[in-house]
Write a structure and sequence with these properties.
single chain, 307 residues, Rossmann fold, 10 helices, 32% helix, 21% strand, globular
């Protein structure tokens, strides 16, 4: 279907230029990290707690969302998007709140270290370590001890897939569900091997020609993009991974790799649900979920987590 009319209005407002400015992380953060809604207009939750988690690598800020008073809770860890160099607890607050309230999960949003100050594997190590911390503080979090899900958008979806692989192989804890919102799963942009990188590569907020530069901040030091912890789509053995919900967007350069990863999971015997939202672009969580066509994404996520 065509781009949703309300989204097209915004796309038409974005200045068009054949010359793309150099990516400067500080400038990217100022633009990306601004929340859309003021806090009083966001979904209200029972409680929100700010914490700092001491790990072997660093102290990692987290924001813990509790949906209601209860004796125990399923836990969901959330890894925000932002190309590994932007995003924080506040930028994704309006995304995490409805996930918490729709699902009934206690959500721990992770403020992992950002590139280029902290390149690969810092974000991955932090996401894994804070998830491990949650399992080791069962009584403090009132975790039910059974349900441990992880979710993330864009680069956060990359971290979801990589943490799932690490957890399977290290066997320090068990993840029960993984949710990937329009994930970036292949960080090798030496060629555009997915049709959506060409079809949706220009004029839909994310520009394919800039992806190599954007991800270069995370990949400092000649990181091997064939490493499945960098590009999870390169992992051939996807057996014994948690059931997955993969959400893609029609007008997203990352659409095809997300859907291919879902197919690869299915072929390895993993239970997978895939949903492509039509007429929408990358990054639609929070920004466009007020539109009727996309507002069910949180309920869909909650239904998946409940099964």
């Amino acid at each position: 279907m065509p781009v949703h009319p309300e989204i097209k209005k915004i796309l038409d407002f974005v200045p068009k230029s054949d010359t793309k400015p150099k990516i400067i992380p500080e400038s990217h953060r100022k633009m990306f990290d601004a929340p859309v809604l003021p806090v009083e207009q966001r979904v209200q939750v029972y409680s929100v707690e700010e914490r700092s988690i001491a790990t072997t690598e660093a102290d990692i800020p987290v924001r813990i969302y509790t949906p209601k008073e209860a004796d125990s809770y399923p836990i969901l860890m959330y890894f925000h998007g932002g190309a590994f160099m932007s995003g924080n607890l506040e930028s994704h607050d309006e995304v995490v709140r409805p996930i918490c309230m729709e699902s009934g999960y206690k959500v721990v949003s992770v403020g992992y270290r950002l590139a280029p100050e902290h390149p690969f594997p810092a974000a991955l190590v932090d996401s894994y370590n804070v998830t491990k911390w949650a399992t080791e503080h069962k009584d403090e979090l009132k975790w039910d001890g059974k349900n441990l899900a992880i979710a993330g958008d864009s680069s956060g979806g990359n971290l979801v897939a990589a943490v799932s692989l690490m957890a399977r192989d290290k066997k320090e804890f068990t993840i029960t569900k993984q949710v990937l919102f329009y994930p970036s799963l292949d960080l090798d942009f030496s060629e555009f091997r997915y049709p959506s990188l060409v079809e949706n590569g220009k004029g839909y907020f994310v520009e394919s020609e800039q992806l190599a530069e954007i991800n270069s901040f995370y990949l400092l030091g000649n990181v091997d993009t064939d490493n499945p912890l960098v590009s999870p789509i390169r992992e051939e053995n996807l057996e014994n991974l948690p059931a997955a919900l993969v959400i893609t967007a029609e007008y997203d350069p990352f659409r095809d790799e997300g859907e291919l990863f879902a197919e690869n999971l299915k072929n390895c015997g993993v239970s997978v649900e895939v949903k492509r939202y039509e007429g929408v672009t990358h990054g639609f969580l929070g920004k466009f979920t007020h539109l009727d066509e996309y507002k069910d994404v949180y309920k869909r996520t909650a239904d998946f987590l409940a099964r």
